[in-house]
Amino acid sequence: MKKNWIAMILTLIVLTIISACTNSATDSTKKDANNGSKEKITTLKVGASSVPHAEVLEYLADDLKKDGVKLDIKTGLDGIQMNQMTADGELDFNYFQHTPYLEEINKQAGLNLVSVAGIHIEPFGVYSKKIKNIKDLPQGAKVAVPKDVVNFSRSLLLFAQNGIIELDSKKEGDYTTEDITKNDKKIKFIGVDGALLNRSLEDVDAAAINTNYALEGGLDPVKDALIIEDAKSPYVNIIAALPERKDDPAIQTVVKWLTSEKARKFFETKYSGAVVPAF
């Protein structure tokens, strides 16, 4: 009799263990099924200018999330900060600059960031609150231009392309005031931090302003610019990241949407020529 009770107890223990394992397996299957039904979300930290970079990223946020990518967008940082933070891994990528600027920062700061993809062009323009035509620049005019090497050179080239000054024909790029060979109006080019160029319009005769800053300042590049680059500009705004992140699937998903027809229509509709798709 005692043996029968022992056998029954052992049987109950075995059945309990089997039941627990079965329930555990069922719960695990449910969890796996639930996990399988949900997209795994990868969060990327990105440094971007407010306009148009952050705006288009925010516009595409729902599409990106459906593809498993969520963006934590950081704005209000300057170019040096964004590149350094990307190089340090604090940002997964940045989206605010063109390749010549990136190459200059890489050289100056000893970074090794690379271009992941070209997205759009922001035609560079010259604006004024004092004149309506570039030909009306007065003698000795003060013109504010971005102080960084690349955009300072870009400004001088724009003035040269419009016949206002002439530059050394033996040189290509990295122009400085020393490369000006003809300046009949004795224009004084004053280097100013890019983010402050809108404010400088109160104090100078004209200012060469990057389109993202012009838009932030309420200027319409198509209507307000006295002179402006055309769509053939080599200064394509890019996604930049560390070399090892260039082929990261999540970053490539961002590139896919930034170069989609939906993004193209957004650029063309919202900015009406002030931002030109480069894809």
The best one-word shape is globular
Enumerate the strands of the largest sheet in spatial order, edge to edge or round the barrel.
Answer: 2-1-3-12-4-13
Number of helices: 11
Oligomerization: single chain
Overall structural class, as computed from helix and strand content, comes to: alpha/beta
N-to-C order of helices and strands = HEHHEHEHEEEHEEEHEHHEEHHE
Q: Helical proportion?
A: 40-55%
Characterize the main sheet.
Answer: 6 strands, mixed
Q: What Rg do the Cα atoms give?
A: 28 Å
Distance between the termini: 86 Å
Q: Got a strand count?
A: 13
Estimated share of beta-strand residues: 15-25%
Average predicted confidence as pLDDT: 88
Contiguous runs where pLDDT drops below 50 for at least 5 residues: 9-37
Please describe the topology of this protein:
Elements: H1 2-37, E1 42-48, H2 50-59, H3 61-66, E2 69-74, H4 79-87, E3 93-98, H5 99-109, E4 114-121, E5 125-127, E6 142-146, H6 149-161, E7 166-167, E8 180-182, E9 188-192, H7 197-200, E10 206-209, H8 211-216, H9 221-224, E11 227-228, E12 236-241, H10 249-258, H11 261-271, E13 276-277
Parallel strand pairs: 1-2, 1-3, 6-9, 6-10
Antiparallel strand pairs: 3-12, 4-12, 4-13, 5-10, 5-11, 7-8
Q: Would you kindly provide a brief summary of this structure?
A:
43% of the residues lie in helices and 21% in strands.
